[in-house]
Design goal:
The chain has about 300 residues and is α+β, with helices and mostly antiparallel strands. It is built from 11 helices and 8 strands.
Length: about 300
């Protein structure tokens, strides 16, 4: 199981500045629900001093994504936008007393959302999409430029490092050779040599989860049901509930019912469920509202019409 600091737990269980800022004049949106992480950062910037007076977030993702978003909103409040732009993903992780290496991409997402919000405030178009011909990871739409930047900024040395910080290579793994080529190029520029057999650089407070014996489909669904059952009393105490609808690959579709249906904090509740499932099953899973499955079916159906 991943080892989370007390600060990560604090910002996950009692997030700061959750929700959209009323009257925000700077909005940054990054990620997507289909990829498992999405963040919408809203800021109220004083137009005369350019000081960030209020900040809020809406995050769909794991506990680390929520904690990273929460602590980012605390860090940048009171800063000018130029000062805020100097905040790095490592600053976010450090403020949380460290993140597991597999979750460093959550701090990167926060940094990108901040850049997008500042660009929105200044009326400048901000693009996180890849340059033509430079797309490396098709699963998560990660380009070579971002990978190179993360290698330089965070002293990455292995494909696993790159995956932890950017998610690139974390899907089908078809891009691993391309990532190795980028690592070799950047490390050569730094006067270092790329070693494909090197292990991931050590990170403080990390315990890598051991690989477990794969579950059968029936065992897997039963285990998911057991986790949902264990979480149900907490939801029901607030008048809500959750029901399993379908499991397709690594995506778990659920219905949030009762008070949880339409609740502003539903995304955080789903993120908490996702985090718990991943910890228990020892594999990457996405928990998605069943309504998203219906949309996908409708789109596919229209495509065959």
């Amino acid at each position: 199981m991943w080892d989370y600091s007390d600060k990560v737990k604090e910002h996950f269980f009692t997030p700061k500045n959750a929700g959209a800022v009323v009257g925000a004049n700077a909005i940054g949106e990054v990620g997507s629900i289909s990829c498992g992480d999405a963040l919408r950062l809203t800021l109220k910037v004083n137009p005369e001093t350019e000081i960030i007076e209020e900040s809020g977030f809406q995050t769909f993702g794991c506990g680390s994504a929520i904690a990273s978003s929460s602590v980012l909103t605390e860090i940048i409040k009171g800063m000018t936008i130029d000062e805020a732009l100097k905040v790095t993903n490592q600053d976010i992780a450090n403020e949380l007393d460290g993140l597991p290496p597999e979750k460093m991409h959550c701090s990167v997402m926060g940094r990108e959302a901040l850049q997008a919000a500042v660009a929105n405030y200044r009326g400048v178009e901000w693009k996180d999409d890849h340059e033509e011909g430079a797309l490396i990871c098709k699963c998560f739409a990660i380009d070579a430029v971002m990978i190179e930047e993360m290698i330089w900024a965070n002293k990455l040395r292995t494909v696993e490092d790159v995956t932890n910080f950017t998610k690139a290579g974390g899907g089908c793994a078809a891009c691993h050779e391309d990532i190795e080529a980028i690592l070799e190029k950047v490390l050569a520029e730094k006067g270092e040599k790329f070693d494909a057999t090197a292990s991931t650089a050590p990170v403080e407070k990390v315990e890598v989860e051991k690989v477990k014996t794969p579950l059968t489909s029936v065992q897997r669904i039963k285990k998911i049901e057991e986790v949902l059952t264990s979480l149900r009393p907490q939801l029901m105490a607030d008048g809500g509930d959750v029901e399993l609808v379908e499991v397709v690959g690594n995506t778990v579709y659920v219905n949030m019912t009762g008070a949880c249906n339409g609740c502003q904090m539903a995304a955080m509740t789903i993120a908490g469920i996702q985090q718990r499932l991943m910890e228990v099953l020892g594999e990457f899973l996405r928990v998605v509202p069943a309504s998203e499955m219906k949309k996908l079916v409708n789109i596919e159906g229209a495509g065959h019409a």
